[in-house]
Amino acid sequence: MLRKTLPTILLAILVVALLVSGCDEAGQGKTVARVGSTSITASELKAKFAELAPFTQQQFTGPEGLMEFLDRVIEEEVLYQAAKRAGYDQDPVVVRTVEAVQRRSMIQAYYKDEIEGAVTVSEDNVLAYFEEHPEQFKQVGRIKFRHILSNTEAQAREARNQVIGGRNFASVARELSKDSASRDAGGLVGALNQGDSLPSAGMTAAFIASLFDGVVGQITEPLRSDRGWHIVVIEELTQEGVKPLDEVRERIVNSLKPGEAREYYLQRLEELKVELNVTVNEDAFRKQPRSEEELFTLAQNTEDPMARLGYYSELVFQFPDGEHADEAQFMVGFIQAEEIGNLEAAKNALERLLEKYPDSELRESAEWMIENMGKETPALEEGAPTSSR
After folding, report:
1. Percent helix, strand, coil in the chain (nearest 5)?
2. What is the pLDDT, as a whole number, of residue 377?
3. How far is CA 331 from CA 17, 26, 258, 321, 365, in A?
């Protein structure tokens, strides 16, 4: 058992050493596995590992995890070589897919480098946006401070004198402050927004608001609250208002750049069309007229009455003097009467046949239909019209 697992253990140690420790260039070229005539080097394995998302990399920690990752790389190479040996590198679907991926990758790289990379948002545009959208850059007043709570003004002033005399504020707070909530933290109070209160220390919203008039690092005079007397040192202070331009410049640039890149892209696209001599054959998109024979054949071979009616109507409109025009006109009336049930439209169509094609062999049939339209259908006599379909 030991003989069987020893190479695996040694390989795991090698992989860990090459991937985790900073090995030199010679080490990076060391072969960690071989599939056929193809070597998998430490540098290639490290590069593939770096391509993984951070959360995926966490799945391959330690010697066993890295060996599992190497197994996956080997598996991929085995399948690739098997597919190539089977001729799939010449498969039309694979070739088209590879070409499509390459095409998309090239376009994306071109857009990123030649379009987005060519666009610089001007300082004037940044400033204009900043001035026109102040509501987007509002900041609330925020303060972070330390305080020492005393029972009397005299005690507060004594604590202040010790701090001014050189003692550390936090040390004095731990020794003298009556506020148990902040004493062990050296009097430190978590950051508060303007308008907040701190009831545990006896500080009302008005008390907190008054601190915003202070200066960072300056020790206040004793201040009265509901619980006693305080001295305060402000550590961080942000006044309510609009954030400074320098603080939001990058955010504005990132907001404006896509739109400016789009404008530049449209401009550059038109220039490229001219440079590459783009032409469009508009005739290829125009509906090509169908011949009379084509329309007549479509009508005769179509079961749907509305579709047949459309083909016959188009034939009459496009070829009013054609060989099948009179028959098509008759069929328009026949379909309207017998299959759709629109007697008025049928009568109009048949009367148009009599008017437009007085010499038509279907004249007698059209007259019979007009005379008997809407009546109970009599038994067909010899010579009565029938559908020519």
Report:
1. 60, 10, 25
2. 55
3. 88, 89, 61, 16, 11
